[in-house]
Design goal:
It is a single chain. This protein is α+β, with helices and mostly antiparallel strands. It has three domains: about 120 residues, Rossmann fold, CATH 3.40.50; about 140 residues, 2-Layer Sandwich (D-amino Acid Aminotransferase, Chain A, domain 1), CATH 3.30.470.20; about 60 residues, ATP-grasp fold, A domain (Dna Ligase, domain 1, 2-Layer Sandwich), CATH 3.30.1490. It is about 35% helix and about 20% strand. β9 and β10 form a beta hairpin. α4 runs antiparallel to α5. The longest helix has 18 residues. It starts with a strand and ends with a helix.
Length: about 350
């Protein structure tokens, strides 16, 4: 097949996406597919022929994840045409000529349904969930509202943090809490606040990130995540950071966290986590694959945190690790995602 891998984009998770895209591209090429890897935001260089990307080596800038999230203003300044468009020159034309588009994007304009809707209008099949369910899953508040009756969630409220209401939020918020953006991923902008000083810092950081924020009761427990592939829950994986919690740097720096799969938990915990992950997946209307995140307390109660519709896809990312436990190697996982996605798109989803 001719496959375009879309990566990068203008998102705080840009660096992670570039790494995912490079690994997916190489795996699919190794399986004999013709694969073009392109940065959603930068697109084609002036005078570049899109067809040449199918034979081009993978650029080094796609291969390594920097330890910090990128400066998006700096990224935007690097694009020659300085267009306000989130999609770079020639990207959609390249996608239109492919048999399928593998979305290796993360975060804004990748998981929020906008690129899915664009490709739907072009009639181009792509991997993962459709535009509406992707948009819902990206909004942590809306997702919790929809699933609170089918899974256990921590008490939360969604607010827009402003200079005017910051002091009120400080007075009215019972500690400890987790403060995080409504629509971001990779733990970017996530803070655990045990003190008023920590809460103030978290709220001020949230305001700088745009203000739309979820304030959620902090649940002490084990961080366990469950991937769904083709309507089946894969074995759970436990995340054990060596320092702090599973933030951006602990996610993407080698050795910063221990990842144990299958998670060393009782069989009944495993069964409930799988049921809950599937319940969220189906309630929101997701398809093909996703990864649900939980905190599990000492008594085995799984508290649902969020679900990721385009989780990381490097060979050492969590979903590939879970798939490997049931005998699905990385390249087979990539091909399975494409095949199941093509079936879903033919059904009109």
């Amino acid at each position: 097949m001719k496959i375009v891998v879309l990566a990068g984009g203008l998102s705080p998770e840009r660096n992670v996406s570039l790494s995912s895209g490079s690994k997916v591209c190489q795996a699919l090429r190794d399986r004999g597919h013709r694969v073009a890897l392109i940065d959603l935001f930068f697109g084609l260089e002036e005078g570049q022929d899109g067809e040449s990307l199918y034979d081009a080596p993978i650029p080094e800038r796609f291969r390594n994840v920097a330890p910090q999230a990128p400066d998006l203003a700096q990224v935007r300044a690097q694009r020659k045409d300085q267009s306000p468009a989130a999609i770079g020159p020639g990207v959609l034309e390249l996608c239109a000529g492919a048999d399928a588009v593998f979305l290796a994007l993360h975060g804004a304009c990748g998981e929020d349904g906008r690129i899915q809707a664009t490709l739907d209008l072009l009639g181009v099949p792509y991997t993962g969930s459709g535009s509406l369910s992707s948009a819902i899953a990206m909004d942590k508040d809306l997702t919790k509202r929809l699933v609170k009756d089918v899974v256990t969630t921590a008490d939360w409220k969604a607010v827009t943090v402003t200079e005017e209401n910051l002091e009120t939020l400080l007075r009215e918020t019972a500690l400890p809490v987790v403060v995080k953006p409504v629509d971001s991923g990779s733990s970017i902008g996530v803070f655990i606040a045990h003190t008023e000083e920590e809460l103030r810092g978290a709220l001020e950081a949230s305001r700088a990130l745009g203000g739309r924020t979820v304030i959620e009761r902090y649940i002490r427990g084990r961080e366990i995540q469950v991937a769904i592939l083709d309507n089946v829950a894969l074995p759970s994986i436990e995340i054990i950071p060596k320092v702090g919690f599973y933030d951006y740097e602990n996610k993407y720096q080698p050795g910063a966290a221990e990842e144990v799969c299958p998670a060393p938990i009782p069989a009944e915990w495993e069964a409930r986590l799988g049921r809950d992950a599937l319940a969220v997946f189906r309630t929101i209307g997701l398809s093909v694959y996703a990864r649900a995140d939980f905190i599990v307390t000492e008594d085995g109660t799984p508290y649902f945190l969020e679900i990721n519709t385009l989780p990381g896809m490097t060979p050492t990312s969590l979903v590939p690790q879970e798939a490997a436990v049931v005998g699905i190697d990385y390249a087979t996982l990539c091909e399975t995602i494409i095949q199941k996605s093509l079936e879903i798109r033919k059904e009109g989803h």
